[in-house]
């Protein structure tokens, strides 16, 4: 149902005669009492991208009760581990053609325009690999804690999983999410503009527990280095304040089961509110130290080029941001009338407190409904009722978080950051609804 | 990692010499600096069920850096829709051998002992089919609203998905969950005792919205009938109070994506707090009426045989209940020492307010930690620190909900219900930890 949600249905409600027919057949106890509805549907079925070829109107096949209304279906445990419907094959993460040189050092984007609520299905979680992903044998994986500690320790997975754990819902966003938009590239869909964003229930051990077990010197040791086991040698500095807050987790669980291989199985760091690169995958080592390490991935990459030519470093927190996911770029409004404007808001500094929505490019704003529970450093779903009058419209959302920070316009963001950044673009997104109903990505000042 | 969590690791932490070796090699910049740890692991690897054959100690292979630390991994979008690690193949829903005559009218149980947090991965959601499952074409599916309404309506999926939606986390439990235990059958694992239980973020339209659109007579129409499109002709009566509360949803979304075929794709009813049979799958019709329908699935099935020989009917609410999932039946505690007792609690009457845990069969109780957010009619994860002294232990959990109701013992439940029921067993579960560390299902009075 990738674009279906904003399309006009092929047919409106059955007319009075159709309803009478359905009622009559239902009273006769006929099992095909919905055939009137099916007949109505068949006429417009070709408009639905993934529908089977539409039989011609009057085709005797569609006057039969569908097989599923009387037949014997599939058995339990058909495939061991369940999969989405074949009709949802179009809903998948996608690589942006030409964005990267190889598919191992690359990105796949989550299909935000097709998702509901706040949980991202693990099979659709965005990917960002620096040297490809691995399926590491957990019985051989180890986590070492060393550096400014009394006694360095090496943990097996079984040892880690015996310790007290916590489970928390958090978003993860790549620092480069929406990066193409700095250059006004205006990629067509919200999958590509904002799809390096996902949200899961993560389960693991607070890192502070492991540091305490190793006797970490928390007076001198004001930083930790997190190191991954894959060939990219991903290493990131994390300030000790974040660890001491208890929020940083050494996580093995994601959405109820073990992490997926693409997301760091069997162990990754969870650093709520901080850009994804610090959530080191295939985590194998934590070192306690007295200063930042200035590794390649925090000096050459993931830095912000400022207007004065300097690089801004260690800008890890993902600031407050939001995006409308329906209607959004690439979708089509098939007629005038009611639509539920729907989207996601998040902040690396805490809870989202308000989302305003504009349909006229920011002249007027209305407060959207926030879907609870609104959680700390977690996606929040918002919605607003809207009646489209068929004229061009400019849809925008603007989030505010509990620190009082308000998501900036492009003009405001560029005033501070210039135009030569890659990372940390949290500006207000604009979708243009054209008179034809087509929705396009545009940038307003 | 199905049983790994409560097993002792093959080796404890590296000794001082091992740590020195790791440190020395790390300083030399060697990429195989973890080989000490791998050597330590190899000796005990055979104890881990899913490990590859363990090389003999001193085998030159294990002195090599694992390929993943230097090699090029798998590319993004390897399979389109992601899957769990191959090392998790043992974590799957399972059919209870011999429980049902056919696999179409059957059950598969969720592997609760392997799950974390509260979200059930959709690929592991329990199944209960009355005539098998179907993958229904959503472009042809319709929902009819009729009966005591001004104007009967038939909705397409696109029409439903244009309406304002809500997303909410709720548990779903089959009324027959833990049914085998009435007969003291004591099936071995919590997958089979309690695994007809799952929890998801559901997205859909409140049913009351659709009734209002059809002009339902809410004065006379105090009940609705929900009817499924599959061959089992599942029909269930729902009291209008539940619908008027706004909690009953016509749902198409589950954990961020469309419902899975086994769970009713493209449309199912969500009736929070009520037994799963009323969450009608493949939902095709809602009829408004002035009295309960007394259909086959509410007169012959899903009734409780009471001690006086009468049948108790329409006992739909799933009362407050809990179960310890680790340690639980079939698992083995490999040594004395620290364990995190971990489990799930839920109530069809609202939020869980307290869970007490006993390790001595109910003589002494300690309050467990509840993992937030604690949500209405949703699973709540609890945990308690425990040090096992190696002697036999009887593990129990007892939940309380916001109505003040306390989960009963078997003695209390049988006092009211007798012993000839199938459905609605919410008694306290007991796991016996034997001196050998083996955990078994036992019933205490």
From TrEMBL, chains A, B:
Residues 52-79 are annotated as: Disordered. Its EC number is 1.8.2.1. Its cofactor is Mo-molybdopterin. Keywords: Metal-binding, Molybdenum, Oxidoreductase. The keyword Oxidoreductase applies. Residues 319-430 form the Moybdenum cofactor oxidoreductase dimerisation domain. GO terms for biological process: sulfur compound metabolic process. InterPro entries: Ig_E-set, MoCF_OxRdtse_dimer, Mopterin_OxRdtase_euk, OxRdtase_Mopterin-bd_dom, OxRdtase_Mopterin-bd_sf, Sulfite_DH_SoxC, TAT_signal. GO terms for molecular function: heme binding; molybdenum ion binding; molybdopterin cofactor binding; sulfite dehydrogenase activity; sulfite oxidase activity. It is an enzyme of class 1 (oxidoreductase). Residues 134-293 form the Oxidoreductase molybdopterin-binding domain. It holds the Pfam family Mo-co_dimer. PANTHER family: SULFITE OXIDASE, MITOCHONDRIAL, SULFITE REDUCTASE. This is Sulfite dehydrogenase. It comes from Ramlibacter humi.
